[in-house]
Write a structure and sequence with these properties.
single chain, 163 residues, alpha/beta, Rossmann fold, eight-stranded mixed β-sheet, 10 strands
């Protein structure tokens, strides 16, 4: 997988102890058709094959996503219930995240103060169950507005609005 740190200890008269701590993958970054394991610092975790349990790792997308995975993990640490629902996250325009939940709801986070936006959404979801209703997109990019788009039905044209 890769070594996070190593320690060598000499115990006289003739013994050496070597302790290795492996880096642990927290996400899989999809870059085109290539999949790469990523640790909490956004570094590539070398692996000859996908480790057991890799299918449960968060899927990342977008150029530059690995460099910002630490910020995403901090954001999700503030809202663990939301983190449990998260299937994938895409780094958009080198400045913000779009979150994709297991129930196919997209959450478009703002460039600044994503923590406050996500906290606002969790509160609204607690009050109005937004994430289990007919909405497919929750747009939080503007601090004083919330845009909701209904899920597309088969045969419908894609929704229009702020992108």
């Amino acid at each position: 997988m890769g070594v996070a740190n190593a320690a060598v200890e000499r115990r006289l008269p003739d013994t050496l102890y070597v302790t290795l701590k492996e880096r642990r993958a927290v996400a899989i970054w999809q870059n085109g058709n290539e999949f790469t394991l990523i640790d909490t610092n956004g570094r590539t975790v070398r692996a000859s094959r996908m480790p057991p349990g890799a299918e449960s790792l968060l899927l990342l997308g977008g150029p530059g996503a690995p460099e910002h995975v630490g910020d995403l993990l901090l954001l999700l640490a503030n809202e663990p219930a939301m983190a449990k629902q998260l299937r994938a996250a895409v780094w958009v325009g080198q400045r913000r995240w779009n979150l994709f939940l297991n129930n196919d709801v997209e959450i478009w986070l703002p460039e600044e103060d994503a923590v406050a936006a996500l906290q606002k959404l969790v509160k609204l979801d607690g009050d109005y169950k937004l994430l289990t209703r007919e909405f497919g997109i929750v747009d939080l990019r503007l601090p004083d507005k919330l845009y909701l788009r209904k899920r597309s039905q088969a045969g419908d044209s894609p929704p229009s609005g702020p992108a």
